[in-house]
Specification:
Length: 332
């Protein structure tokens, strides 16, 4: 439909002399697109109309008629022409001078510039660039083996040994939780059954403020899911009864899985850099007046009903506290 539409309208609307000139000299600069509609000072050219139709979703075009001719005519009469007439009326009323319209126009212009830079960045981000980023960040995208660990921590070896023997006889999680609640000295995990979550080989966990030790992971790695570590695990001056509850296998990242997200990330990064460069380039065009006059502006900011009244008060100073730890450093 698009080729047929373009060809038909070109034949119907281009002046014969222009067509003759185009045929006589195919290498000359193409003539300007002819005006299809005019409403006062507002015009719509053939090229603009073609671009509009091409940007319209097919199901929307299909609702305008059963064949190409009906769709073309209906689009002009029902969509393009009313918009031109309303735009001309808005100009006659100086609607473009209102603050709300100026803001909308500026936002539309900025959005158009962003889309233009994003389209340019899209062509600039090559497969090689995506692979380079993937190779550079491979370690961040990979996941080592992780082990779900429950741990009861005790300060005395003899007491810990007795608790290990008792732990071997427990029948369910309720008994284990009661044992940890009554005897563990790790305040960070005592009330949740000593659950450290998934522990990484280096002692990291899924909770940034909670850490285990490499020795604990190594000990848990020697048994199967659901088994108690047969020996006490030393953590500094303390001793842990360790229960391996589950595990997640190591995940090696694949380029195909991450390529779409990496490409979008690189496109957005290039777009942001391009826009920042444009801002820096145009700084010399800025004329700043008496910025001290900003102090005369009156701000009327309504309270957010979603926030408590105390949220409007300045925050009280907070003393720095060490992060909770599942090891010796976090014990209290």
């Amino acid at each position: 439909m698009r080729l047929t539409f373009r060809r038909a309208l070109l034949i119907a609307l281009l002046p014969p002399l222009v067509l003759a000139a185009a045929g006589a000299n195919a290498t000359s600069k193409p003539p300007p697109s002819p005006v299809v509609l005019r409403a006062g000072a507002t015009t719509l050219t053939l090229a603009e109309l073609q671009a509009e139709i091409e940007a319209t979703l097919p199901f929307q075009l299909a609702s305008l008629g059963s064949n190409d001719a009906q769709i073309r005519r209906a689009y002009v009469e029902q969509v393009a022409l009313p918009r031109l007439l309303l735009a001309e009326e808005a100009r006659a009323r100086n609607s473009s001078e209102t603050l709300a319209v100026k803001q909308q126009v500026n936002r539309a212009l900025v959005q158009a510039l962003q889309e233009s830079e994003r389209a340019h960045a899209n062509t600039a981000v090559t497969d090689a660039a995506v692979k380079s980023y993937f190779d550079e960040h491979r370690a961040e995208l990979s996941h080592p083996e992780r082990i779900r660990v429950f741990r009861l921590l005790v300060a005395d070896r003899a007491a810990a040994q007795k608790l290990l023997e008792k732990a071997r006889t427990i029948k369910d999680m309720a008994e284990w939780r009661a044992l940890v609640r009554d005897h563990s000295i790790d305040q960070a995990t005592r009330l949740r059954g000593g659950d450290l979550g998934f522990v990484h080989p280096n002692g990291d966990t899924e909770v940034p403020s909670l850490r285990a030790t490499r020795e604990l992971f190594d000990a848990a790695a020697k048994v199967r899911d659901g088994e108690l570590v047969p020996e006490l695990v030393a953590e500094g001056k303390h001793f842990g009864v360790v229960w391996r509850r589950g595990s997640l296998a190591a995940v090696e990242p694949q380029l195909a899985d991450h390529a779409p997200r990496i490409r979008q990330l690189l496109i957005e990064d290039r777009t942001r850099q391009a826009l920042d460069a444009l801002v820096a380039q145009r700084q010399s065009d800025v004329e700043r007046g008496e910025l001290a006059l900003l102090d005369e502006l009156e701000l009327h900011v309504p309270a957010d009903p979603r926030l408590p009244a105390s949220a409007l008060l300045p925050p009280a100073p907070v003393k720095a506290r060490p992060a909770l730890s599942a090891g010796e450093a976090g014990l209290r």
